[in-house]
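Worked example 3. Consider a protein that binds alpha-D-glucopyranose.
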Amino acid sequence: MKVLFAASEAVPFAKTGGLADVIGSLPKELAKQGIDVRVILPKYEDIPAAYTQAMETVATFTLEMGWRKLYCGILKLEHEGIPFYFIDNEFYFHRRGCYGYGDDAERFAYFCRAVMDSIQHIDFMPDIIHCHDWQAGMIPVLYRAHFSYQPEYAHMKTVMTVHNLKYQGVFAKEQFKDFFALGDEHFTGYALEQYGGGSFMKGGLLYSDAITTVSPTYAEEIQTPFYGEYLDSLMRSQSQRLHGIVNGIDYTEFDPMTDPHLEVNYRDSLVKKQQNKVKLQEKLGLPVNKDIPMIALVTRLVEQKGLALIDRVISELMALDAQWVILGTGEHRYEQLFRWAADQYPDKLSANILFDEGLARQIYASSDLFLMPSQFEPCGIGQLIAMRYRSVPIVRETGGLKDTVQPYNESTGEGTGFSFAHYNAHDMLYTVERAIATYHEEEAWGNLMANLKKKDFSWRKSAQQYASLYEQLIK
Ligand code: GLC
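Given these inputs, the predicted complex is written out as structure tokens:
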């Protein structure tokens, strides 16, 4: 079985969010199951030179995008056993960052087109093209409209995975007709049309052979108006071919026993975990105290992550007997919120408005509790890493947070974290208070640690689910 992943980011080449972690780790687990899986990405300027210098050119050709004739180079690099292909066009991709340009529609139209055209040049005819998020969403459309009737392409199936339905890639219809050479028949309500424009995401959803999203609960939620981002009725109509498969994490990459960023490596020893905490307190200028609960937030600072709830009760949270460590960048108002809090409560909170992988690992290792009060969360990766590093998650019961964190039950001793149902600041505050109280109860905390130890959030099970979905499709 041959599978080509098409995506706009992957660790370690380019990352803005959790999508990159998935594309960087799931293929390795699929390969273990005997699948020949390869990944194709844009070649951005920010890819570290150590990688770009090691790439080899495997093809160069001219492709047609509407009336345009454009250069396309394909470079290849094998990384940790997985072949990665990079689409080279300096006009579109030799820019800082991945997204946020006025011509993103054209840039990712080009990406989708280049993926389809490159197949015949790289000597890899996949059985499945697995497309991730809106940036790859027009691949199934191009396949149906321009490729499926060619004999070498006829057997292929396409899978569309939604990592976040909020980002849809909606642009003017004229652009779609121009870039993809599509007729009016593709712009009805049951095709690309969305809000009077056209939608990359909708293309991926309606023209693919199967749809997946990154947790079973999110698969249910997006069929409702609150989470459906105006596509809930479409999601209901497609529910028969919509599958929720929860993400895992790379257990070799995220392992407190071998993580080179940590002061002290550990697996289950709380004493060693506390040694990390003390080192981090010294480093960040917080009062040194191994017994005070440390609560962490490692996240993009955006609305989705539930930061409005924290804003609402910030003074109550700062009054608790706990220390807070924040790491991340994002919307100005939330960056300012945490800068202000660090200024007001220097003994309580450390705000690190930046992203640094090493510091992130130290925070996972040092913290006792990990807060994710998301408004919605397709899967979420932070809580999985936190559990692997024995930091107990406090989450809102939504999407993948609901599927991966089992609320602690005082009477049975079962559970792996703390959770609340409603998007409400005081429900969150109460849950944080309960978590802090439990931290001080030796037996209950021992139960939580023992329960975390038994959980497996590696990719193994989920990769099996993807493999069996591929099998069904090619049968
Ligand atoms: C997006 C979602 C996040 C998910 C990730 C990977 O970033 O917001 O919940 O974990 O994609 O699928």
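Take a moment to read the result before moving on. The CA atoms of residues 64 and 347 lie 60 Å apart. The longest strand covers residues 68-79.
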